[in-house]
Design a protein that fits this description.
alpha+beta; 2 domains; three-stranded antiparallel beta sheet
């Protein structure tokens, strides 16, 4: 029991340390994925479920007592694969004039800053949730502390100062730039 608590404490500390990392690259806003602990948890689930499946499916099941273990092992492997797919699918790519992203289900979308109809930040339990909705319907929700969305935040400052979202080219001195 003590060993389990120690392993859980170490996993929680590692997850907390990894979740504070901004992204894989520090050269400015590029395509950013979820924190590293997501695929680590997925790989752990796949490995644990695989070991459970190996133990349950190779043993002789005369009295039917291994069916719950077999079902649980398959469920754990599927959960691990789910975590790996979520990590593979989701990304955020803030650009100068728009924010591109792909949802955990694999749907790609781009929201131009000039097309934003809803921009809100809510605080809940010490965590922030940024919600951006475009005029054509796509919605992005994320934690701004985990992802570098500084171009989007600069566009929001522009909106607060000028009363409207910036048009294409306005944020980097292009045609129609605010002077």
């Amino acid at each position: 029991m003590v060993k389990v608590l120690i392993v859980l404490a170490v996993l929680i500390l590692v997850a907390a340390a990894v979740s504070r990392m901004r992204g894989r690259r520090s050269v400015g806003p590029v395509r950013q994925r979820m924190p590293v602990f997501v695929p680590l948890v997925g790989a752990l689930f796949v490995a644990l479920g695989g070991l459970m499946a190996l133990a349950s499916f190779t043993e002789n099941n005369v009295d039917g007592m291994l069916w719950p273990l077999r079902i649980a092992s398959v469920a754990i492997v599927l959960a691990g694969v789910g975590f790996l797919l979520i990590y593979r699918n989701f990304y955020v790519e803030p650009r100068v004039d728009e924010i591109a992203f792909r949802t955990i289900w694999g749907r790609e979308a781009v929201i131009a800053y000039a097309d934003i109809t809803d921009f809100s930040v809510q605080a809940s339990g010490g965590q922030f949730r940024l919600t951006v909705r475009g005029s054509s319907g796509p919605r992005l929700r994320l934690n701004p502390r985990l992802f570098d969305v500084s171009p989007l935040l600069r566009a929001n400052e522009f909106r607060q100062h000028n009363g409207r979202w910036p048009l294409r080219g306005e944020m980097h001195g292009g045609a129609g730039a605010a002077r």
